[in-house]
Amino acid sequence: MTTKPKVLISDKMDPNAAAIFRIRGCEVDEITGLKPEELKEIIGKYDGLAIRSSTKVTKDILDAATNLKVVGRAGIGVDNVDIPNASAKGVVVMNTPFGNSITTAEHAIALMFALARQLPEADVSTQQGKWEKNRFMGVEVTGKTLGLIGAGNIGSIVASRALGLKMKVVAFDPFLTPERAVEMGVEKADLDTLLEKADFITLHTPLTDQTRNILSRENLAKTKKGVRIINCARGGLVDELALKELLDSGHVAGAALDVFVTEPARESPLFGTPNFICTPHLGASTNEAQVNVALQVAEQMADYLVNGGVTNALNMPSLSAEEAPKLKPYMALAEQLGSLVGQLTHDSVPRISIHTEGAAAELNMKPIAAAVLAGFMRVQSDTVNMVNAPYLAKERGLEVREIKTEREGDYHTLIRVSVKTEIGERSVAGTLFNNVEPRLVELFGIKVEAELAGHMMYIVNEDAPGFIGRIGTLLGENEINIGTFNLGRREAGGEAVLLLSLDGAIPESVLKQACEVPGVRMVKALSF
């Protein structure tokens, strides 16, 4: 008789979650409020652990979890899970990134109305018996422009609600294609244009190196006088001190934050500021959302434990056990090529094509395409992985083409990644050396052989004597050690590219110096 997988629900969830586990063939224990030492003592007998935000899945817990196969987070954030150690232990970590979408979008709209009509201040004043009717002069949202920073799942819901309120919507999102913008009924714009036009700005983007302080002091200064700002996404997207100063000066008419850089937010420079509203990270706090994420995590975990299906995993590709060994080096190559083209493409990309040739064309295309998309989209969000990348691409209107050519070309196996940009089609290609070692072999039409790993520097330059020496001297003077030089050119004296692998990250100041070297057309720091 086959033993049923055992699951522990260690945080309070909707009771239907336990019912789903049982219906789908799992045994379930619901034991909440455990102290770390208590969880450590019992976790060894469970195959699955279902949590919300209270349970901390630390290295100590994982070391004691000798039978654990999957951790499921009912919600988006997984800060309470040690994902690197979970991966090392072979434990899949799942979340439910879309169960809170409507709830969070509605909270953003609620805060927008609260700002427009000064509802919290008017409520306090009225309950104090003041009846200050002339003090609280609001503004209509009808006819106003909403600036949407992030047009993914939650952002698109906010846009639809705003359009229903007869607002105009301007959206900034590097992944938003013109076609998808038309479908959503929004105007696609760059960030500066959005800041200039918007009467209200709402943020719906993850916190990454690219989005951190996206509303910086400099960008806040570019906004229209009288703008109102709402953040229900992540703390750290807005410079809180700069926002405080602009509220005090009157340039920003109002701000509403559901999230802060430090949470719980026991103190903040914004507390007590007139025209500032805040809530304690309530974006996902509705009965419906909590039910949705609990049921979703139960379905996902049960499917994995009973059938081996993988959904919304943060550290595992969707692969069968038979395919994995052969596909692993191809997926590494595919992810590197996707990351390369993502880091070097700055225009809106409506289409990405993945072309396999020779031996690569005989393989399962889906994991290879997912790896390309994960590498490409992770440039903007480090929460992207092979499981959710195809969904996110579809959501943003990114057309994905998969092409196979079984005949061999110059290489016995090849993967080519092409993107459609405003200046035309651009592509990169790579192969496997000895069937296991990924190598770049072509970069935007220029033959160049390179290993994509670690910190790298990409330079486009005029092919001329002495150029390599000047770059080497510059890096040497800044005590930056070069691992490898990788060169390519279209023709003698024409455009050339230089890919350098470096022993560490290159400072911004050195990048600026490199841009001033004679013959340089472009310099970019890369990371793999």
Structure description:
This protein is α/β, with parallel strands linked by helices and 528 residues long. The chain folds into four domains: 6-99 and 288-307, NAD(P)-binding Rossmann-like Domain (Rossmann fold), CATH 3.40.50; 101-278, Rossmann fold (3-Layer(aba) Sandwich), CATH 3.40.50; 317-452, 60s Ribosomal Protein L30, Chain: A; 453-528, 2-Layer Sandwich (Alpha-Beta Plaits), CATH 3.30.70. Helices cover 33% and strands 24% of the residues. The protein has 17 helices and 22 strands. It has helices at residues 15-23, 36-42, 59-64, 83-88, 101-117, 119-127, 153-164, 178-184, 191-197, 217-221, 240-249, 287-307, 324-344, 365-377, 389-395, 467-477, 508-515; strands at residues 6-9, 27-30, 48-51, 70-73, 92-94, 145-149, 168-172, 187-188, 200-203, 227-231, 252-257, 276-278, 351-358, 399-405, 413-421, 424-433, 437-443, 446-450, 455-462, 482-489, 495-502, 520-527. The strands form four sheets. Strands 8-7-6-9-10-11-12 form a seven-stranded parallel beta sheet, sandwiched between helices. A six-stranded mixed beta sheet has the order 14-13-15-16-17-18, covered by helices on one side. Strands 2-1-3-4-5 form a five-stranded parallel beta sheet. The radius of gyration is 26 Å and the shape is globular.
